[in-house]
C-alpha cells in the first residue's frame, strides 16, 4: 500500500513543481493560484497519510524525491537548471551539460561554458547549467 502512495506522492509533487515553474516564468493565469494551492494540499495530504503509516522517516524520503524532481544531486547539493527556463542572471563561467553532438559524442557531457550578454559561447549546445562551486579554502601557513 505504501508503495502506491509513494508513486502518488511522486506524481503529485511533479505536478506541483510544474505549476510552480509556470508561475515563476509568468506563464500562469491569476486564477491558477487556486490550482497551485489545491496541488500543495494534495501533496501535503499524501505525505501526511504516509507519515501516519510509516512514521516520521517519510520526510527524508520526500526530500530525496523532491531533490530528484528538481535535478539536485543529494551527494553534492548541486543541480542543473534548464537553459530555456532560467538563464543565468550574471555574465561569467558556468558548469554546463553540453549536447554530445558538439564533440561528436552520442551522449551529453558536462563541461564549462561562458555566458555573456544573454548568450552562451556554445549557444546551440548548452542544455542545462549551474553555478560553479566556491573554491576550497586553505589555511595559510
Outline:
By secondary structure, this protein is α+β, with helices and mostly antiparallel strands.
Task: Note the beta-strand portion.
Answer: 15-25%
Radius of gyration: 19 Å
Please tell me what the overall shape is: globular
Biggest sheet, in brief?
A: 5 strands, antiparallel
The chain-level structural class is alpha+beta
| Mean pLDDT across every amino acid position | 83
Distance between the termini: 59 Å
Helix coverage percent: 40-55%
Order of helices and strands: HHHEEEEE
Number of strands: 5
Task: Provide a count of the helices.
Answer: 3
Strand order of the largest sheet: 1-5-2-3-4
Domains, number: 2
Q: Point out poorly predicted stretches.
A: none
Structural account:
The protein is of the alpha+beta class. The chain folds into two domains: 2-69; 81-131, no CATH class. It is 41% helix and 18% strand. The chain contains three helices and five strands, in the order H-H-H-E-E-E-E-E. It has helices at residues 2-24, 32-54, 58-69; strands at residues 81-82, 92-98, 109-116, 119-120, 126-131. The chain has a five-stranded antiparallel beta sheet, with no helix packed on it. The N and C termini lie far apart (59 Å). The mean pLDDT is 83.
Amino acid at each position: 500500500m505504501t508503495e502506491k502512495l509513494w508513486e502518488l506522492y511522486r506524481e503529485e509533487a511533479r505536478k506541483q513543481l510544474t505549476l510552480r515553474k509556470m508561475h515563476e516564468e509568468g506563464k500562469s493565469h491569476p486564477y491558477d493560484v487556486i490550482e497551485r494551492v489545491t496541488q500543495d494540499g494534495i501533496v501535503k495530504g499524501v505525505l501526511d497519510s504516509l507519515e501516519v503509516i510509516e512514521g516520521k522517516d517519510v520526510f527524508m524520503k520526500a526530500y530525496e524525491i523532491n531533490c530528484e524532481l528538481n535535478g539536485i544531486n543529494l551527494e553534492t547539493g548541486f543541480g542543473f537548471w534548464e537553459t530555456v527556463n532560467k538563464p543565468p542572471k550574471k555574465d561569467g563561467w558556468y558548469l554546463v551539460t553540453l549536447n554530445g553532438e558538439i564533440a561528436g559524442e552520442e551522449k551529453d557531457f558536462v563541461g564549462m561554458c561562458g555566458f555573456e550578454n544573454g548568450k552562451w559561447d556554445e549557444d546551440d549546445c548548452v542544455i542545462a547549467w549551474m553555478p560553479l562551486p566556491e573554491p576550497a579554502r586553505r589555511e595559510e601557513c
